[in-house]
UniProtKB/TrEMBL annotation:
Name listed for the protein in its UniProt record: Heat shock protein Hsp70
Record InterPro entries: ATPase_NBD, Hsp_70_fam
Organism expressing this protein natively: Stenotrophomonas humi
Keyword ATP-binding (UniProt): yes
Lineage: Bacteria, Pseudomonadati, Pseudomonadota, Gammaproteobacteria, Lysobacterales
GO MF terms, alphabetically ordered: ATP binding; ATP-dependent protein folding chaperone
Pfam families reported in the protein's UniProt record: HSP70
Length: 452
């Protein structure tokens, strides 16, 4: 039996094709879980170097030694040069000690908590590390240790999926078909796609899968749409997820197998709307656009998926920023509060997909602090993403040369009215078909896995 796995930016799910029907894997009482991991113990990061009193003493001793050597050699090196050289030595020795520490990434991962339980455990313990949306980091330029850690995170998530599926299905599942975006989020171009697939393949094998294959997510969604279509027709499949937006042009329905003609994709999705909504609707309460705090500080605070940016935000000093903004920024730096704010933003975005207004209570920052947001504010915040979506849809329309019979929408962001309206406007002659926002891709993966 081959398991279909949707390893998502925001949520993950799995399903198998059993006795002629798709059977979703249950994770507790749910059919998916948040792709979030909590480590109860703090992970040492070689990039997070800071001088302790002991390291300061070591630094000064090296500077004095260098000064004596410089005088003996008849040179006159400046204090800045001597300090820079000494700092490199101290930092290198500190990194080597980190690597030699017996508490490895593997031992930390054994105590990890996943899904919504990860957020609750992080908030309750008020210490440790929270990693949200590890998929969004797979295509970035990673330090070897960071790559090892991300691979370990993906391994444990996939192992959790495999063991849960094996128990539910009554057999040891060893084969997997993983969904993948057309374009991963990446800082290194096309090499990011290759790296992301390499990490996922290695993680799946380490998780106990003997056979691992990949299928582009819009092609998987097309498989799902094909299964519920009686007559043959041409369709554009639009899959709008948390981290990516993927489109496929396909012929589906009828007795013939579905045919994927072409696929397109951009590394943009729901998390980009979350960021824009946070900056426009929430960060003004922390002084964005009002104080002299640099704009990128607010981006760092909002991007909970980016561990280096989160670390940078926690290291800023806001003691001199006028009240109420300085104290609020300091409160936001407290452990877990950027994650709490992100969850509030995410809940707001979801609520405004079906309601005209939403109120968020930010008591964890300041008693009685609230944010009122309405649907027009969300649409405005989503403007940059919608512009990119319109450009992508226009390219698809030009490449195809005509309207398809149907536009099939799936992915979590397909619930949003502004996404639906944008897709419909791009293909005015097509019928808009609403797929399962959460499970369209994973159902298609299960169907495709059964055909291998």
């Amino acid at each position: 039996m081959k398991l279909g796995i949707d390893f998502g930016t925001s949520n993950s799910a799995a399903a198998a094709h059993v006795d002629g029907k798709v059977v979703p894997v249950q994770f507790g009482d749910a059919l998916q879980f948040r792709t979030t991991v909590y480590f109860p113990e703090v992970m040492r990061d070689p990039n997070d170097f800071a001088l302790t009193p002991a390291l300061e003493q070591q630094l000064e001793e090296l500077i004095d030694s260098g000064r004596r050597a410089s005088r003996a050699a008849g040179t006159n090196r400046s204090h800045e040069q001597l300090r820079s050289d000494a700092m490199r030595v101290v930092r290198r020795q500190w990194m080597e000690e980190c690597i030699r520490e017996p508490q490895s990434s593997t031992s930390l991962l054994q105590n990890a908590v996943y899904g919504d339980d990860a957020l609750e455990a992080y908030f309750e313990e008020n210490e440790g590390n929270l990693v949200q949306s590890p998929k969004s980091m797979l295509g970035y330029n990673l330090h070897p240790r960071a790559k090892q850690t991300i691979t370990g995170i993906a391994t444990h998530i996939l192992e959790h999926i495999r063991l849960t599926a094996s128990k539910q299905l009554g057999q040891n599942v060893r084969s997997a078909l993983l969904g993948r975006p057309v374009q991963f989020r990446s800082s290194i171009g096309e090499a990011g796609n290759a790296q992301a697939l390499d990490i996922l393949r290695g993680a799946a094998l380490a998780a106990g899968f003997d056979e691992v294959e990949f299928l582009e997510e819009p092609a998987a969604a097309a498989m799902h749409y094909h299964a519920v279509s009686d007559s043959r027709h041409e369709a554009v499949i639009v899959d709008v997820g948390g981290g990516t937006t993927d489109i496929a042009h396909a012929s589906v329905g009828g007795s013939q197998a579905p045919q994927i003609h072409r696929a397109w994709g951009i590394a943009r999705g729901g998390t980009d709307v979350d960021l824009a909504l946070s900056l426009a609707g929430y960060m003004p309460l922390f002084g964005r656009g009002i104080t002299r705090v640099p704009a990128h500080h607010y981006v760092e605070a909002a991007m909970v998926q980016d561990m280096p940016r989160q670390r940078d935000f926690r290291h800023h000093d806001y003691a001199a920023v006028d009240a109420p903004y300085g104290p609020r920024l300091q409160a936001l730096q407290d452990t877990g509060n950027t994650a709490r704010l992100y969850r509030a933003v995410e809940h707001c975005k979801i609520a405004l997909s079906s309601n005209e207004s939403h109120a968020s209570a930010l008591d964890f920052i300041e008693p009685g602090l609230n944010v009122e947001t309405d649907a027009p504010h969300l649409t405005a915040a989503a403007g940059n993403y919608l512009s990119e979506l319109e450009t992508l849809l226009k390219q698809v329309r030009e490449d195809i040369g005509h309207d398809p019979a149907a536009v099939f929408l799936t992915g979590g962001m397909s619930r949003a009215g502004y996404v639906q309206r944008t897709a419909a406007a791009a293909f005015p002659g097509a019928t808009l078909v609403h797929g399962d926002p959460s499970f369209g891709v994973v159902q298609g993966l299960a169907l495709a896995a059964a055909q291998d």
